[in-house]
Design goal:
Layout lengths: L1 E6 L3 H13 L2 E7 L8 E2 L2 E5 L4 H8 L3 E4 L4 H14 L8 E2 L4 E2 L4 E2 L4 E2 L4 E2 L4 E2 L4 E2 L4 E2 L4 E2 L4 E2 L4 E2 L4 E2 L4 E2 L4 E2 L4 E2 L4 E2 L4 E2 L7 E4 L4 E5 L21 H7 L3
Parallel strand pairs: 1-2, 1-5, 2-4, 6-9, 7-10, 8-11, 9-12, 10-13, 11-14, 12-15, 13-16, 14-17, 15-18, 16-19, 17-20, 18-21, 19-22, 21-23
Antiparallel strand pairs: 3-4, 23-24
Length: 243
């Protein structure tokens, strides 16, 4: 059984831990988190240190890989970038909860999370570091680009094309054949009946564009003003965002 670590020890990290435990394929060694005290315990597992400790942790605990448990899509990308800068050959795993359903002839990249009740229907493609959250469903022939996400109870019809870093929020319904660009967010409870491009926030019944989004703007936060975020901005983002 492979030894793995979880990057991110907040609420999303606990849910990812639950998936890994119930899946039973990996031996979880602990959490890596820059903002939790080293040695503290989360759900019975120790916070082992931060990303900068990764080379030591890999050798000390014979780590075979890990998964990034960060809910915000752009912040998850920044964490992956940081990990690969420190450990270029690090291996990222997928986790599939036993109550998730993966259909016929789907293709899956690395670093993805399939929560309880998630459904991915036939012929779909999930690229890297995506989240299909609790009771979310992706219809047949759907494509999720890297770092995109479906929040709990999203219902997406067949043929969805979801762009990189984009998020569909809680309880959204999406009709068949919809395309959504990069860095876009569909607000909770919306009904999507039309295509949307890049860098927009849309919501409503039916969903309409309400404003332009900045690249890296954390949609899971109450903060209103965010500019384009780079790798060096990561510490500020994490300190202001519940992940």
């Amino acid at each position: 059984m492979q030894n793995v670590i979880i990057f991110g020890a907040s609420g999303h990290g606990s849910v990812v831990l639950d998936c890994l435990e119930k899946e039973g394929r990996y031996n979880v060694i602990g959490f890596v988190d820059s903002f939790k005290k080293k040695g503290s315990r989360i759900n019975g597992y120790q916070v082992l240190g931060s990303e900068v400790d990764l080379p030591y942790l890999i050798n000390r605990y014979h780590i075979d890989g890990g998964i990034v448990a960060i809910g915000d899509n752009w912040t998850r990308k920044l964490i992956v970038d940081r990990i690969l800068k420190i450990a270029p050959n690090f291996s990222f795993i997928n986790t599939v909860h036993p109550n998730a359903v993966l259909g016929k002839d789907i293709l899956i990249g690395c670093g993805n999370v399939f929560m309880p009740g998630a459904i991915v229907n036939a012929n779909s493609i999930i690229h890297d570091f995506c989240i299909i959250n609790t009771n979310a469903s992706l219809g047949h022939d759907g494509i999720m680009d890297s770092y995109s996400s479906l929040a709990p109870s999203v219902c997406a019809g067949g043929g969805l094309r979801l762009g990189r870093y984009s998020a569909i929020s809680l309880g959204v319904n999406v009709i068949n054949g919809i395309e959504i660009g990069q860095h876009s967010v569909i607000g909770a409870g919306s009904l999507v009946v039309d295509h949307f491009g890049d860098n927009i926030m849309a919501y409503g019944l039916p969903a309409k564009i309400v404003r332009v989004r900045a690249v890296g703007e954390p949609y899971l936060s109450t903060h209103k003003k965010w500019q384009s975020c780079k790798l060096e901005d990561l510490d500020e983002i994490q300190s202001n965002l519940s992940i």
